[in-house]
Amino acid sequence: MQQDPVLVVGTTPDYVAKINDTYPDATLFITDPRFREDHRLKKIKPSAILFSPLDSFNETIQSVVQHLSACHVTARGIACFDCESLVLASRLACNLGRPFPPPEAIVRSRNKYEARKTWWQAGILSPRAIMASELKETIDFFRFIGKDMVLKPVSGSGSELVFHCGTEEDVRESVGIMKTQLPRRRSNPLFTLSPYPFSGYTPVDPCTSWIAEEFISGTEFSCDFVLQKGQVIILRETGKIKATDQTFGSVLAYTFPPQYPQGFSLDHLCQVLKLAAESLGYTWGHFMVDYIIHDNLPVMIEMTPRPGGDSIPDLIKIATGRDLLGMHMDIMSGRPIPANGFPKSLQTFFSVNIYAKEEGCITRLDTSRIISQPWVKALFLKKDVGDRIKLPPDDYDNRLIGYCVITQQPHDDVICLANRLQELLTISVIP
Hints:
Elements: E1 6-9, H1 13-22, E2 27-31, E3 49-51, H2 57-71, E4 77-79, H3 86-96, H4 103-110, H5 112-121, E5 129-132, H6 135-145, E6 149-153, E7 163-165, H7 168-181, E8 210-214, E9 219-228, E10 231-242, E11 251-256, H8 266-280, E12 285-294, E13 297-304, H9 312-320, H10 324-332, E14 349-355, E15 360-366, H11 368-371, E16 376-381, E17 388-389, E18 400-407, H12 414-424, E19 426-430
Parallel strand pairs: 1-2, 1-4, 2-3
Antiparallel strand pairs: 5-8, 6-7, 6-8, 9-10, 9-12, 10-11, 11-14, 12-13, 14-18, 15-17, 15-19, 16-18
Helix pairs in contact: 6-7
């Protein structure tokens, strides 16, 4: 008899491969047909993958129900690692009678302005912001707040089309890029209209509007937490170090464990996380949150019901031996949650991004000098010879060559080590 699987909704081939390698229990991956020929999926059992167009909710839900029935199994839980697939995962969970955060809360938290507005009403610190679609209203807000401003997409992720504006000329230039680049992303699932309208929520077109918000100074942090029975359990904490030579908001490195400023209270953070999640409409789930510590208080930037992504799972795995992705699968299938999160490390670990410096096709890529360094614990490549590189503002993800997990050295900070990694990389690119 087959084991009841955990359904992983919408995951890309790199995550499918990671989960398949590290999570021993039965899993059914529901992914888009465009990945059908991806080489990373060739080693996955055909019965463990269901290809279905993820933008067609009803078709996908019907396909999943039929597949489970044909295999005589039921879903043990529903897991999701991608923001653009969260609503689909929630609706699928409702159909199958499995626990998952509600779609209304997901839609509200994915809209950065709606999340800000909800948090203000709940008395939670978050940047002042407006929704804008024209230059005039954006400049008017810049004049109103009288300080630096950040422009960002309504529902994007990472540093994609995020701009720091210190002058009106910066605002004009950034708005011009927004007006050009946002419509080009209409086929990107992150930039589509909310697929789940509900009472009291006005859908916004992410390809014609953006968020203008005040710039908050301070160091940014990220954490995973679980909300259950009104209690918050922090699973994972990392600091963020920004890349000053990349587009605004780009991450140079994550650090574990994080170095909080003196006087910052984790107990207070837990109180804020609980109120922030419940105000959005969540009562249970596994969440990732970004926040800036300003004057020793957490200022909420983003919250979404999935685990931390990017290089964070690999950083945590190497630093602690714990599997963040597998833990999410366990949580979403009802297994007990660790009471104290991940163990703390006495040693400082960094996951450092290596960015491409020019566009073109990679003709040579040699990382042997990187992996020979004793302070390099692991290297994860995103690119290979023959791959094409595109740079912002056309593409923000494509510029990433890979990332290294390293340990802190006595006489070098992470920026020096990151520069050293770039020097050790041998790469040739032709236009």
